[in-house]
Fold this sequence. Notes:
single chain; about 375 residues; alpha/beta; TIM Barrel; Elongation Factor Tu (Ef-tu), domain 3; 9 helices; about 20% strand
Amino acid sequence: MGDNDLIDTIKYAHSIGKKVYVTLNIFAWDEKYEEIIEMAKKLEELKPDGIIAADGGVIDVLKQYAPSIPINVSTQANIVSLHACNFWHRNGAKRMIMAREMNKEQLKYIMENKPEDMEIEIFIHGAICFAYSGRCFLSDFLACRSANLGDCAQSCRWSYNLYAEERNNPGQLMPIETNEYGTSIFSSKDLCLIKEIPEIIEMGVDSLKIEGRLKTEYYVASIVNVYRNAIDDYKKDPEHYEYTKYLKEIEKIKTRELTTFYFNDRKNTDIQEYDGHQYNEKYQFGGKVVEYDGDKAIINIRNRLQVGDTMEIIVPHRLEPVEFKIDKMWDIETNQEIDVVNPGVKDQKVKMILPIKCEKDWIIRRKK
């Protein structure tokens, strides 16, 4: 993201009452510090709502050159104890983003014993990295793309061919445990703590984090909407919280199988996704509303649509989507009726009549 994009993003987000957190959680070589110092000075002027960092040297620079911006310590700092929380708190940090490897008893202990003005943030949904607390160098090693610099090639999700070699017969490689796609030995399931939302809220955690790196806007918006509804519903009526209705929506959106990881049990082994599936067989991103032409919505399509398709509109702050079938579609240029539209052109659009009035950027998914 360039400087102008960052400036525009912060201004726009603040204009609509949203917060912006800037991530500077790289582990920086000395030659990077001149650039980091300049960025810190800019952020002091731009006033984001927080800076997420992991490196003690970077945090030291932020304290000096961006003193008015709250510091959130990234999960990549591997915070797993109250002692570590207290260390970062004494050194100027406001919020601790805890390691995903922690269980609920460890988190409860921290919540009960931390300083009152210390904030705690935990992950509740999304990809689990193969490496501890996301500090993975597999992508850097295999593809020269550093995950720590935001350029992860998702090497842990690749399929690999595995071989056994008898020590006394070097070079005679015998393939093991593979199918035609290889074996995804590093690939983890996605974290999902929708059932545990009541426990998490009751322990007093300040912020809940949803991982969305390399995900589409459809995925992120849909998952966030589910958890937003779940949290709000529990706060309104804690006695009748029923996680299954939220899980039903998550099942429509997920790209991998789900796990609670170590939250309930540090001995949990239901974590890995050995078959390497990274898709949803039932639903896909259909498109999003960009504007209206009279009574017709103009949809920026993301996958092939045709008359007769069953669609669902994701309505913000509402759990249940609005379902409808495409009865008619119109070409964006000619206004002629068409039966099929394909996303072969960037920003391909189509017109259709929706069952409810939608706002700009509302998302529509297609049932396969």
